[in-house]
Amino acid sequence: MGNSTNTEGLQGAWEKIKGEAHDLLSIDVTTFSAPNVTLDVQDGGPFNLDKLFEQIKAKVGTGSTLNLVAHTHVDFDLDAVMIAKEDGSPGLMEAHNKAVQTAIEARQSFVKALKGMFG
Question: pLDDT under 50 in the chain at which residues?
Fold first, then answer.
């Protein structure tokens, strides 16, 4: 009887994690071409590669040009939406698609590991 209670508790924990992890497990991959971009990533401290994305979001210079090549959103249940430039660079599209596939595979491995812990 104790084993059944543990199983129910683990199943409940998995359901809670699954609900909480929806945003964590959703994938957004955006690819831009940047023919004319200047960035000011000086923050008074040493350059930090881990914080580069946050710095870039806030510091694209005036007069810079970013062209959206593709954006892909994949939900937890693998429903997907993709927006792509009609005449996008084949090389950039290939890189974008590889990034999406890698992200999906990584998320699937993560979910499989979690299920193994609770299943």
Answer: 1-2
